[in-house]
Each structure stands twice: as C-alpha cells, then as structure tokens.
Amino acid sequence: MITSAIIPRPLARLPWRLIFLVAAIAGFGLLVLYSTAGASLQPWALKQALIFTFFLSIAIGMSWLRESTIKAFVFPAYVVIVLMLVAVDVLGFAAKGAQRWLDLGPISLQPSEFMKPAIVLTLARFYELLPAAEVRKWRGMWPALVMLGVPAFLILVQPDLGTCIMVVLCGVTVMFLAGLPWWLFVAPAVTIAVAAPIAYSMLHGYQRKRIDVFLNPESDPLGAGYHIAQSKIAIGSGGLWGKGFLNGSQSHLDYLPEGHTDFAFAALAEEWGLVGGIVLILAFGAVIRWGMWVASNGRTRFAQLSAAGLTACIFFYASINLMMVMGLAPVVGVPLPLISYGGSAVMTVMLCLGLLMAFERQQRTVSTLA
Amino acid sequence: MTKPTRLTTAHQSITFSRRMLLLGGAQAAVGAMLIGRLGWLSIAQNQKYQLLSESNRVQLIPVPPRRGWIIDRNGKPIAINRSSFRIDIIPQQLTDGPRVLATVAKLLHLPPEDLERINNELAQSRGFQPVSIADNLPYEQYAAITVRLPELPGISATRGFTRFYPAGPAVGQLVGYVGAANAKEYEAENKNPLLLVPGVKIGKEGLEKTLEQTLRGLPGGQRVEVTARGRLVKELEPKPDRSGGTVRLAIDAELQEYTARRLGEESGSAVILDCLTGDILALVSMPAYDPNSFSDGVGRTEWKMLSDDLRKPLLNKVVNALYPPGSTIKPMGALALLQNGIDPDDHIFCGGGYQLGNRFFRCLGRHGSVNLHRAIAKSCNSYFYAMSNRIGYDKIAPMARRLGLGHKFDLPFVSQNYGTVPDSEWKARKFKQNRRIVERPDWTSSDTLNAAIGQGFLIVNPLQLAVMAARIASGRDIQPRLIGVHRDSPKLIGLDPKHLEIVRAGMWEVVNGDGTAGASRLPFPDIQMSGKTGTAQVRRVGASATRGQGGDWRYRDHGLFVFFAPSDKPRYAGAVVIEHGMGGARAAAPVAKDALTFLFDRQKAMESLAALEQQWGGTLAERTARRAAAIKAAASAA
C-alpha cells in the first residue's frame, strides 16, 4: 500500500505491488513481441500494449466490485456462457480448423475463455451454499460434477483440448479445496491412467499426433515434432545469459514457429537465457503467492474458494504453457498469459486478477471495520 | 442418527487451510520443476542446442572447386577449364513446369531431343538435384534468361566452368570425360552434397575418373544466414575453396595429337613409349568421341551413333581391345629360341610352309634357306614353326611374359584387358573351365605352331606390344608410366645382350634392309627405325576367298607394327594396330614412321600429314565438327 498525502486515497488503496508486478511481466512480454517482430512495434507489440492497458483498466475497475454483486451474477453468468458454448458448437464458424469463436458483429468472443473464471466462481458459490454436512455426501458431488462436466464437454468437442483441460483443472481445484473426499481425486487419477489408451483412440487426428510427438519428439522432427524440437533448441541455445535482446536467431529467422504466441517463452529464453526465464517464473510465482494469500485471508467461504480457484487458473495457464514449450507436456495450444500475443489470455488473467483485487479490497474493508 | 464425524464449518475451515497448504506446495514444486527443466535445457544441454541452433541459422552453399588441370610433359594443357554460362532447373522449386520449360526452350532454341532428355531427367530427379538445361551458352542467351528469371520459378542461371580439351577426340580415350554425377555416384560418395551443385562435374571415364580425387579439390562454401523458409538474410564470411591439383602426364600432347590425326579415318590405336624411362609419350585410340561434347551431357542420338559405330569410338583400343599379335611377336620368339640354345645361324628351308603330321602350316612366301636374322626380316613362318616346335611353347611363354605380354600394368586406367599368354598349364586349366574355347586338355604341337606366329590362343593388347618393343630396344625392364615425367631408367631385364643385338639386327633389316616394311623407312639419312610387322587374321585362313586381304571390311586382317628408333641408340619404342588394315606393312608401319618423323622433324611430318588429310576431307578438327553437325541434324530430324 502506498500511503502518501499527494496520492488520492482511492488510488493509494490499490494493490500497487501486484499491479507493478503484472505490468512488469507484461512489459517483459512486450519486449519479446518487439524482438520477434524484428525490432518492430508492429504488428504485435503495440497492439498487445493497448490490449493489456485496456484489460488492466478493467481489472482495476473490477476491484471495486462487492462480493455480494459478484455472487448475484455468478449463476446467471454461468448459464449465459454455457449457452454461448452451445451456440459456438452449433453456429460457430471454423477458425484454424476448430470452432471456438462466437461472432457478434464487431467483436468475436471465445466463450470458453470466460468459462475458466466462471467455473471457479460457480463451484465456489455452490459449495458456499451447500451445508457443511453435505459436502462429503453424494448431494455435494453430483451437481458440481455436472456443472463442470457440461462446459468441459462442450469445449472438448469444439475441439479445444487445452482450454478443456484448464477448465477441468480449475474446477477440480475448487472441489478439492471445498473438502471433497480424497477418493474422488485419487480414483479418477487411476481411471485416467487406465482409460488414457482408450481416450487416445477417440482423439482427433491432430490431437493424437500431438501426443505421439510429445512422447517421442524425435520421431518427426520436420513434421509435427518440429514445434517442440525448435522450441527446445531456442531455449537450450540461450544458455545462462541468453543471446541478447534482438539477437535470437531461432525466433528472428522463423525457425521457432509461433514465437509470438504459444512459444513466446522459448523466444524469451533464447534472448534472455536461464536468468530471464527464472525471473519470469519467479514473477509468476509472486503473483500466484499473492493470490494464495488473498485466498487464505478470505472472510467468506465463497471468497476463499474463488480466490484460490482464480489463482489456480493463472497458475495452470502459465505452468501448462511452460511445460509445453520445454517439452514436458504435449503441445495443447495454451498461450503464456501476459507474454503471448493475443487478447484472450490477457482477458482471462485480468478477469481473474480483477476479481482477486476485489476480494482483497473486501478483506481490508472488512478488517478495518472489524 | 448423528454420525460422530459430522462436519462443521470449523472442520471445513481446517480442511481448507490444510489443502491450501498442499496446493501451494504442489504449485511451488511445479515451479521448481520448471526452473530445473529450464536449467537442464539451457545449461546442461546448452552446447548441443547451440550447435543445432547454429546449423539452423547458417547454411553452407557449396562453391565448387575448380577442377585441376591435366597437362602434358611440357606443360601444355590437355584438360583445362573454360568459364561458361549455364541454365539449370531446381525441380523442387519448379512450380509451373510446362510453361516455364516452354519459355526456356523458346529462348534457347532447344531441340526436341534436349527437351525429351530434360523431361526424362526431371521425372527421375530427386527434387533437390538440379537438372541441367543447357551449358556453354553464349552470353546473349544467358542474358535473355537472367532478365526473365522472376517469371521463371525453378530456373537457375549461373556462371561456371566447363571442362575443355583443346585436342578434342585426340585425347578422348586417354583422359575420358566429365559429367554431372548420377544418383548411383551420389550414393556411392555417401551423398556428398557437392555433387548436387549445378555445374559440378565428376570424372566419368579415363583419367578424369581415375584421377578424380586429385583433380577435384576441396569445395568452399558461401556461408549464409537463412530463414526457415529459405530466404537469405545475410552473407557470412565465406569458406574458401581449394582448386584441384594439376596432374602432369608423361604424354607429349603434340605427339599425341599428331598421332591421332595421322590415324585418320582408320580404326586403330598407337602407343609410343620412351624406351629408356617407360614414359608413355602418346596413347591414342581412334576414332574417339569428342570429350568436349560429352561434358555437356550426351544426346541420345549421339550416344546411339557412337555405340553403333563399327570402328568403336567408345572403346580404348590401347588397353581394352585384344588382338592376336601376329608376326609382331616373332622378335620375342627369337629371343626365346636364342635363350634355349638355338644357334642363330641354323638354317631352315622354307618351301612355303611346314609339314606337321598330316597338316601343312602355311608360310606367306617361299623364303628358301632362312636363318634367324632373315626369318625376322622376311617374317618367315616356316622358320618359327620349325624352331618353336623344336623347343616347345612352354619355353617360349615365359619370355612372352617377361617382355610384358599378358601383363596388367599399374596404370590409372578404368580397366585393362590383358589377354592371354597360353601354355600347357593354362590350357589344362581352361579345359576344366570352358570347353568351348579349349577342346582338349593337352598342349599340342599345332598349338605351339599357331602361338609361334602370334595366332591361336595368344591374344594381347597394343600397350603390351609397345612394352615388348621397348624392352627389346633398351634391354631394360620398362614399366609404362603415364603420370609424371621421369628421368630414371629401370634396371636391365637380364637378357643376354648378344641375343638382343641379334634380334634388333633382324628388326633393323625389316625396315631398312630386305624386309617387310621397307616402304616405311624414316626420311632421314642418319636416323633409322627398326620394327616388326604383323598381320592378324580375323577369320580362319581359307574361310574367305580373299584370305582377309579384301572384301567386307569387318573380315579383313588386322595390321600391326612394333618398332623402336633410332635403331643404333633406341630412345622411342611403340606399337601401332590398325583394325582390318589388311597388313602391318601396309597400314600400321606408315603411321609409326610418320609419328617418329614428327619426333625428329615436325615440319616434315606435318607436310606428309597435310597431304593425307586433304584426301580424308579435312583435319581431325574439321571432320569432328562436321560429324557433330551431322549428329545434331540427325537428332533434330528424329
């Protein structure tokens, strides 16, 4: 908190440390975009800066939302988003071979992005309303599973495996924190291990290939394994200090595919090296620690579960992408929030952060009154 | 019915805190794992990935080295490089094949034959392997293509070098030719990328092939930074190439060319050695293909015409053609007789042949009383029948081998056919292997008689005949040498100098006395040539009415001649074989005479050649050009 006589009170009460941190991460991302465009603000860096500023303002604006207002909107919002997902599946148009976008005239919406925070809030609200005694009973489980399963299925058939996985992981995190019995989490894990081969056979051709290539990237270094192979080359060739700003040959000579979107971290690590990579990971770690701190200090069950779920959402976003670009996970098409070019990830993360700031403000307000 | 484990809000709060701790721990663990992985990639495996990144970034465009020259003993060029303009297709980049090809064909006036070849090669190409459209283009045509390059995707126009052989067909069979590597040669060299560069030619035949590793040199490289899509970003420091090494041959290019011209329209070969050192001064096989026209790729019509030609222009007749040596081996036979105790003054009466049992072996004349000297001079068969039969062929064969017959020499030829020096042991072995050649296992007297006059089982190549003449002339163990100029003489062969003198005297008589080659004396008062004529039957005697002395060209006798000069102090030795020339004295000896004349007096030799070439319809170069035009006409007519 900045306390100064000059700065107006409402501004001074913003979580400046978090805002600076997030702005620093985004600034780092802009440098990467500037570099991969060949030392040019066009076509990515400038646009990304505008997108970031826009959504940061929205997030700051959201920080004044009251918990009661959020609660009131949770279920309606959830229903609207599910309906939009249905609409995408039915009416959506093909973009990059997958149906993910809803064209609403001037803007295109990707409803699956909204589902990430929405599923967190919905489940948090559900477990707040559920009497404590019911949590470990059947009645505490099946509605949550349905609420999670329906959108997950709708997203999976788009098909968008990456987002589907994230929605499921966010939802499961909330359910886990809500106190559902252990076996509910252990059993599916075992089931997945058993059922994976069966699911594998039902996947789309390109998804299956991604998994094949993930398991053995060298099998197809010029085809499907090209992304992972080039990404590892970019990261590995950076060394401790990197090749230097604007000197990344992998990204500048287009060997690294999608160097400005999903594989932006590889471009970053190539130019900034291990040091730059660790700084970024620690910065994300700090954001997540702040979110977990907000969750721990939540005054209501809804605030606790929501804050933890939203933080987990940011965590999964970043870690799935990092595992992907470093060859620890299959390429599922998850961008690195705040770094990768594109509005969806920024929007989602800023929605999460805006809600987290709102919860944090409530805590302080409540604590002052208490 | 209240359970003892009824959950309360307090319980819930504890569970939440506990699980939050667990979640936070898991998140920290994932973060640590990510940092560990990052460190592993960028520190532990840094070198590996740095290498991969560099090999991505930097591409090496091989710059072909200039092929080494082949020069003669005096430094005169035999094979050199001429700068040229060429047009190629990179099949991978050819997007609009038919249209592009049609445009290029129109600009370059390509004959349909070439188009067919290009289409064939395109069909077989491996995508990245360039297909040559045209080489050696005039600048105007090259420029016409270069200005249109943007609208001709897949076409590449480059300046390069082509191989040039100033003497053309005169050195064709000796040096061979070069050409673009084919798929098999590319595989054989472990996919050497240099072989794919347009304009890179490798040796396909002759010395160009056998000396390939010396001549090729080391490729340099234009190091360039390229994007993943192949766009050139900038040029880095180039890696210089190293030109191929120059190879100096023992050949005297002028003598080589003269001899080739002197062979004229005949199908034949000639070898001239320095009989003191073994240096091969001339090694000619005619007619020959023009290696200059081969280095641009051979058209199908041309190839067909060459391979159908009865005079076999694709064959190196010096080492790959085998002939019965005829009477040319009689000096060798004489040495064997002398060594086996035959008195050179023993006389034999030649009444036109020799009676062996109930078979009569003919001589070509009735020489009356002959001794060894006269038998060589007159090429009397009867003498050699009688004397050889006296000692047996198993005593002659070692001498034949000692003088180089049947031997494979250590020379950089792609292959050598080294023929047969038969004896009883050979015959017995052959009988087991192939009964069609040998009808009975034991060596008979008639086998001896046939071999004694250079017929029957005995077959040799012209190089062996030349070596035989050189060894007799110098008495030294001459080994023919093609690479480098030598001053050292090999050691003596260990034959009795008196025997050699007797045989040499007989060979002197052949040319300069009352012998078979009296018409081929050298036109100098003080320099004389010695030699021995030979006539080898192509068909059995009596199979034709003309006895090989006329009629169908293909069945005429071969004419052979071995020689050395000057007679008193031998320096040069050699052999000439004229296929179907009907006689050694008639066809082969005059060629030897003129070639030797050239060595002593070029002016005089050129004069006699000029007269001959006028009869044949122009110089070798003129006739070659005329033939090339005819081939072109035939190709466009087809």
Rg of chain A, alpha carbons:
21 Å
Helical proportion of chain B, percent range:
40-55%
Instruction: Summarize the biggest pleated sheet of chain B.
Output: 5 strands, mixed
> What is the average of the pLDDT values of chain A?
86
How far apart, in Å, are the first and last alpha carbons of chain B? 108 Å
Q: Helix content range of the residues of chain A, please?
A: 55-70%
Question: Ranges of chain A with pLDDT <50 over ≥5 residues?
Answer: none
Query: What is the overall number of helices of chain A?
Result: 14
Rg of chain B is 35 Å
Walk me through this protein's architecture.
The complex is a heterodimer of chains A (370) and B (638). By secondary structure, chain A is mainly alpha-helical. Chain A is built from 14 helices and three strands. Chain A has a three-stranded antiparallel sheet, covered by helices on one side. In chain A, a hairpin with a 2-residue loop joins strand 1 and strand 2 (98-104). In chain A, helix 5 runs antiparallel to helix 6 (142-156). Chain B has 638 residues and is an alpha+beta fold. Chain B is built from 23 helices and 19 strands. In chain B, the strands form six sheets. In chain B, strands 2, 3, 4, 5 and 10 form a five-stranded mixed sheet that branches. Chain B has a five-stranded antiparallel sheet with strand order 12-11-19-18-17, with helices on both faces. Chain B has a three-stranded antiparallel sheet with strand order 1-8-9. In chain B, a hairpin with a 2-residue loop joins strand 14 (353-356) and strand 15. In chain B, helix 12 packs across helix 23 (620-637). Chain B starts with 8 loop residues before the first helix and ends with a helix. The model of chain B has no long low-confidence stretch (mean pLDDT 87). The chains are: A mainly alpha (370), B alpha+beta (638). The A-B interface holds A 132-133, 135-136, 173, 176-179, 230, 232-240, 249-250, 253-255, 269, 273-274, 277-278, 281, 284-285, 288-289, 292, 295-296, 301, 304-305, 308, 312, 315, 319, 322-323, 326, 328 and B 6-9, 11-12, 15-17, 19-20, 23-24, 27-28, 30-31, 33-35, 37-39, 41-43, 45-46, 48-50, 52-54, 56-57, 225-229, 233.
